[in-house]
Amino acid sequence: MKNDILLKYRMLNAEEVNREIFKDFIRYQNVTKCWRKENGKWIIKDAPFVDDWIENDYEKLIFCLKNTIASDGFVYAAFYDGKLKGFVSVESEIFGGKQGYCDLSSIHISEDMRRKGIGRTLFLAAKEWAKQKGAKKLYISAHSAVESQAFYKSMGCVEAEVYNKKHVEDEPYDCQLECDL
Length: 181
Hints:
Layout: H1 2-6, E1 7-11, E2 29-38, E3 41-51, H2 55-70, E4 74-80, E5 83-95, E6 101-109, H3 118-132, E7 137-142, H4 146-154, E8 158-159, H5 165-170, E9 175-180
C-alpha cells in the first residue's frame, strides 16, 4: 500500500527536463544475451556488455525529450517518492503509410524499480496517447536484450511489418517492433 502512495505518474514539461531530474535514475543494465536476426531467423546469441549512460548520452536524451515536448509529442514519467524512476516518450508524427505508426522513441525504467509494473503502466499510457492522436500502431526500435524483448512481447509487440530505415541505421542491433493500438 505504501509503495502505491509514493508512486506517481505525470506528464513532464520542457523546463524540468534537465540533468538534475536524472540524478536518482539508474540506467544500468548488465546484458548477457540478445536477439539477433541471422539468415532471416531470430536467434538468441551471447552478446555480453553493460549498458549505461555517460554524460554525453544524458545531453542527447535531454535534447530529444525537450524536442518531443516542443513538437507536441508525449513525455510521461513515473516518480517514486518524488524521484524520477521511469519515463516514456512518443513522437507526434504519424508515419509508415497504411501502418499508421507513432514512434515510441524511448522507454526506460531505473534499475532499482524494474519488474514492478512501471514499464507496463508507461507503455499503456503511450499506447492510449498514440491512439488518441490517430495512430494505428506504435513503432519501437527496441533494445535487443532478452529481458527487454520479453517485456515488449508481454505488451503484445511483434516484428514491424515495415522497418524505419533511420532507426535501423542508427541502431542496427535493435529489434524493430510494432504494437497494435
